[in-house]
Each structure stands twice: as C-alpha cells, then as structure tokens.
Design a protein that fits this description.
With 472 residues, the chain is of the alpha/beta class. The protein has helices at 14-23, 45-48, 72-75, 94-97, 127-139, 158-167, 179-187, 201-204, 224-232, 251-264, 275-278, 285-298, 316-333, 357-366, 395-404, 412-431, 453-471, and strands at 3-9, 28-34, 60-63, 83-86, 114-119, 144-148, 172-175, 192-196, 210-213, 238-240, 269-273, 303-306, 373-377, 380-385, 388-392. The protein is elongated, with a radius of gyration of 29 Å. The two termini are 54 Å apart.
Amino acid sequence: MTEHLHFITGRLAQHALRDVLASVAGDFTWSVDVMPITVAALMTPAWIAPRMRPPPQTNRIVIPGYCDGDLAELTAVVSDDVTIDRGPRDLRRLPAFLGQSDSASQAYGDYSIEVLAEINHAPRWKLDDLVIEAQRLAANGADVIDIGCDPGEWWPAVGACVAALRDCGLRVSIDSFDQREVAAAVDNGAELVLSVNATNRAAAVDWGCEVVVVPDDIATLGGLDETIEFLASRDIPLRIDPILEPIGCGFAASLDRYAQIRRRYPDAAMMMGVGNLTELTDVDSAGVNVLLLGFCEELSIGSVLTTQVINWARTSVKECDLARRLVHYAVQQKTPPKRVDPSLLTLRDDELRDVGATELGRLADSIKDNNFRIFAEDERIHLVSAGLQLSDTDPFRLFEQLLEARPQQLDPAHAFYLGFEMAKASTALTLGKQYQQDESLDWGYLTRPEQMHRVVEKRKVVEKRKNERKND
C-alpha cells in the first residue's frame, strides 16, 4: 500500500514546502496541514495536537524540525499505526530526509587515497604544541603525520618528536635528506621517508621502511628509473612521486609526468604532493584539492601529501579527506561527482529558492503581527511585517526606511537582531547563497549552526506571560 505522509507547517513556509514536495519523486502521497501561525518553529507538539487534521489514509506525520517538545502529545491523538517524525530544520534537506539523496547510498564514504599531513619547519615547534597540532590534523582526516625538517640543519630532537607522536597512536613519516635525522626518526617508529633519489638511496637499505622516490632532475625524470631499480632489487618498499609543479612553472608538464610514470609502472604505488598548487595559487584550496585528488583517483595514485600553512589553504587536510570520498564515489560509480555530497560547497550553495514578489506581497497582506520577516532575493533585502513591505539593495538604507515607518517594536535588542540578520542576508546576496531567517548560512563542512534567536526570544515572552498569569 502506498504510504501517505502528512506535513505540518505554518503559513510562511507552506508554499516552499509544497514546491519541494512536488519536486520529490517517491513512492508516497502527501498532504500539507497549514497551522494558524506564521512561523512554524513557534509551534509545539502540544499546540499542534488539537489543531492538526490528518486524512484517514495517513501513515506518517512530519512536523517541523524546530518544533521542540515531547511527541507523546501527538502520538496520543493518532492511531498506533501512525508514526510521528521531526523533519529537517532546512527545507533544502527534505529530499534527503525522504530518501532521495544520492549521497545516502551505502557506497558513499569509502576512499582509496591516503592523506599525509605535513607539519612544516617541525624543528621550530615546541614539542607539546607539535603534538597538539598533529592530533588536530589526525582528527581532520590525516592518516599519517609528516615531520618536515629544515634543510641544512641537523635536528637532534627528531627522534624524541617521532616517539612522542607514536606514543599518541599516530602514524609518522619523516621529510628530510639528512641521513642522521632519517635514521633517528625510523629508529623511533617513522614508517615512511620522504624523499629518496641518487644522493641517499644507498642509505635507504639500512632504514627498514618504505620510501618515496623522486627524480634527480624533475623536468626530465632523470635518475628516477635508476633509483627505482636500485631499491626494488633490494626489496625496499617504495612509492613514486614525479613532483607536481606550480602553475607557471611547468604544471601541465608535471601532470603528464604522473601519467607517464603510471604507464611505465602500472602496478607501482605513487604519491602526489599537492601543496605546490594549494599553497602557491591565489585561490581557495577546496576546489584545487578536489581536482587534484580526482586526477589521483583516476590514475590510482594512492597517497597525497598536503600542508596548510597559508591562510587560504588552512583547512586542506579536511578538504582532502572529503574530496577523496567524493572522487572515489565518482570513479567507482562512473558518474560525475555532482549532487553527491555538498560538504565542499562552501562559497556558494547548490541551488537557490526564491519566495517571489507575488508571495511577498501576499505575505505582507496576510500578516497580522508586528514581527519582521527578512528575505534576500532579486538582489535586494526585503523586510515584511503587518502592513509593511520594504526592500533595498543596501541594509543601511533599508533600516532608514524602517525607522521612517515608525515601527511599534524596535528596542535596541530588536535593532541589533535585525542588523545581524540583514548582514547575513547581504552576504547571501553577494555570494549567491540561500538566506533563511534565523538560520546560519550554509558554508558546507564549515557551517556553524545558530540558534533561532527570534524564536528563542518569542518563547521567553510566552513563558513570561504564563508565569505572570500563574502568579495572578
């Protein structure tokens, strides 16, 4: 039997809810119950219970995600075979809630690329601070912590550093051409050495761990084959890194060298250091990381080395962790990585949903209270309340219009609230993001959820009035 879902909402969200439901393809029918309240988040289960009117065929009732309180008040007034659920707080998440999201596939989340996170200039760090940083990088998705040493300077404490990280349960690699530093690091548990070429390959025989092979001459890959042969003949595990070059310094040619090496050594482990692009390009790092890890996934390059020194690349480890899952899914499913996981859509949203001029006008005519509703669309910020509909491209001019209208309720706290919300609305218009009053802007994996300040204050007022009536 086809499932019937009955959705509870307020007047403000009803049209947007119907639009989203109409776009969802599912084996169910649905109905919408519009409660006599503008903001659905102000409802409680106890308030909804005597007012909702689900049709007889209803199997499941979905109330707004912000509707707090004990659901027992609702279950008490419906039959036992009807389930009650809270929906998502954001309507854009409703298709996923109803099982329509591609990323809900059980296959999503797997990955094949290992992430090495380098701590640059490790000798300059205090040990306690370095351990804290390493743990933070691991928490953000790093599989291996790479200790970056300073060229030309012997670091006597490298062994103690590696030992401290290993004591924390972390995997460690060492990035140094100084054979004394490498020997001390591997003696204390480092499992990988970056990097080996003709200058130090003989010493690698005694290290007893895996190494990363790099060419003596990057542009020609000179010496690379000889070092690979030397190490392979001595059963030393290795991975190959032809070295990624920055844009303007041979970037395209360096990508071609990775493809050459994959053709030449089809079964060899390979690595790519992505920092030469993320750190040396004036662009947010997330998109760069996705492209480079997509290249690695298609060529079966099983590990990437990243760092996060410059501010625009400060979250590269987390980006690589998310990107490796996205590109793995795309390659495995043989589909573009679109509409799969929005976590890396930090600057702009995947889609925008406008209320429309007609609905804004209808809303202004129907509102009976003096609370302000804020919208951001058509390059303007809109302010709607009972008998009031204002808009402007500039939040300061919009606030001047509001003052001229002499609103009934505009104390300092309310003015601050409106300023905060209009600043968010202005940001949303600038970047092409969806603005929803009392919700944080969606910054993908960087999003910091907000309380619905207006709802919190409204509930405080309601609670205060209840207490006053009790005291009377």
